[in-house]
Write a structure and sequence with these properties.
Layout: H1 2-9, H2 14-59, H3 65-69, E1 90-94, E2 97-102, H4 113-124, E3 135-145, E4 155-163, E5 167-168, H5 173-176, E6 180-181, E7 185-190
Antiparallel strand pairs: 1-2, 1-3, 3-4, 4-7, 5-6
Helix pairs in contact: 2-4
């Protein structure tokens, strides 16, 4: 009993006890700093992948190839006339196909698997964990384009590439199975070419 009292009063063990109390807090703090850096890196890669995807979509063939092939001159719009907003609404393409969101969507429904796969491959060059189900492509009216364009699609829509359903796993998440859902990422450009399979 005397030895226990003497041990309790001995100051030499105080440093070890304080270190044992502070070490877990210090390690959590360091892991938190590392995880914030990793999360910002993941966030930045997702943003850049969305930007790369929309750039690729703007200069290569449309995923909805029917939309790009539609001739507004055949609909009665004189050659050289701008495409009015009443002639093109908006369409959305996912890995399962394209649908019309706002009528009219002339030529909608001709899904180009090759164009979609090429876009996904370009985005994966920046963020390999992207899956086809994470990507949505929207085509909407921009006011650009004219009937009978001999060099490309009649309509030059705004293209929005959205990236969603991604998550981030912090360091302690590997132990406890915790993940953090990332918000959706999107980037928009107007169509530039819309004809070829290779981008610049």
């Amino acid at each position: 009993m005397k030895q226990l009292l003497r041990l309790a009063k001995d100051p030499r063990a105080a440093v070890g006890a304080e270190f044992a109390l502070v070490l877990p807090i210090f390690l959590l703090f360091v892991l938190g700093i590392v995880d914030v850096g990793r999360m910002m890196w993941t966030w930045n890669r997702a943003e850049k992948a969305a930007q790369m995807g929309v750039r690729y979509a703007a200069v290569t063939e449309m995923v909805d190839s029917g939309l790009g092939d539609h001739n507004y001159f055949d609909d009665g719009l004189p050659r050289g006339n701008p495409i009015p907003d009443t002639s093109f609404g908006s369409a959305t393409c996912t890995s399962s196909g394209c649908t019309c969101d706002v009528d009219p969507c002339p030529g909608i429904g001709t899904f180009s698997t090759a164009a979609f796969d090429n876009l996904i491959a370009r985005m994966r060059a920046i963020m390999p964990e992207i899956q086809a189900g994470n990507v949505t492509i929207e085509y909407s009216y921009s006011g650009l384009g004219y009937s009978g364009d001999p060099y490309g699609p009649d309509v030059n829509p705004l293209i929005t590439v959205k990236l969603s359903g991604l998550n981030f796993q912090p360091s302690l998440g590997y132990v406890f199975g915790v993940t953090v859902d990332l918000p959706p990422f999107a980037s928009t450009l107007s169509m530039e070419d819309g004809r070829y399979a290779i981008s610049n």
